Amino acid sequence: MSKRLCAGLLAAALALAAGADTASASGTAEEWTPEQRKLLQNTLSLNELQRDVERIAGEQEQLSRQRERLNEEIKRLEGRIADSRERTGTIVRTQYMQSQRPMLLSLLNARSFGELTRLYTYYRLAVRHDEEVLLAFRRDTDDLRSRRDDLAANALRLEDIKLGIENQQRRLRALQEDIDAGLLASDDPASLGRLAEELNVYWNNVGLYEVDEYFSSLAAASNKLPDFLQSSGKMQVSGLGTRYTIELTDGELNDFLRSQSSDFENFAFTFEDGRVVAEGQQGRLTLRIEGRYTLEAEPDNAILFHVDKLVFNGLELPESTRKELEQKYDLGFYPQQVAPVEVSSVETANGRLKISLRLTL
User: From the record, what ranges are coiled-coil (predicted)?
Assistant: First the structure.
């Protein structure tokens, strides 16, 4: 049995479990009263903020382990450098004070070719040993500098994470207070509480998977988009062959996406003035993505997609969820994958995506 079918069956079971006296959390926004909608919105945000706190805490633990490892490496390198500092100082003084001249004189005073060869071999071994000692000392000092830089960056990141957890926890407390106040003011707090509980189960077992599945499919299709544009003849040449223009309608993009995955049979993109809207429905699950394409120069010249709003079954997901999906799945467009070009502009309007490029050699 496929995961999607399991998700659909679970959604149906949840809808039945909700009972006839209350709207289902797997339903649409039109089925909810203002009271239910506010509670569900707060519950969903609370759920996602708790998940984000867990994610941040996991990163904090990883950074703490990294800090311990860096401190151990720094201590080891400092000890090794201290042990070899006297030897390297002697080598440097020898080289600059030319105290190796006796060896060179010995070579000049050799009485036979065999003696010359033997003395030269000893000389080269001594020089090579000195070079290896100096190179090892330099590697250790470079590594020590690098580890100290890593430790400083680690400390800054840990401080950011600490502040992030504190901010999220404040938001969690405020949301929990709103939820508790809403339940106390409700005429039927038991039913409202069951509805909130159902939403948590539905989102964690169905919604989260479905949203992740859509973004995964979008990322896979986005990776194949440059090849599609090149093979479909969408890249028009101008300016004596140094400039290119790509124009893609939202209908053409939707046809391409549906050719890549059945997930997009009931999912459609629309290019509006300065933004991109994508909406879809699978059973009783609806998803709306609002975002925009931006031209980025660093670290690579690319067109990146930013998620500005993410709505699941009429409920807006918090910023932490949007950022997590945006970082996890790359929905960007990299034209240099198929041609030596650089993007100069990107526009969306009236059902069209227009990308201007220039040749780079």
Answer: 46-87, 158-185
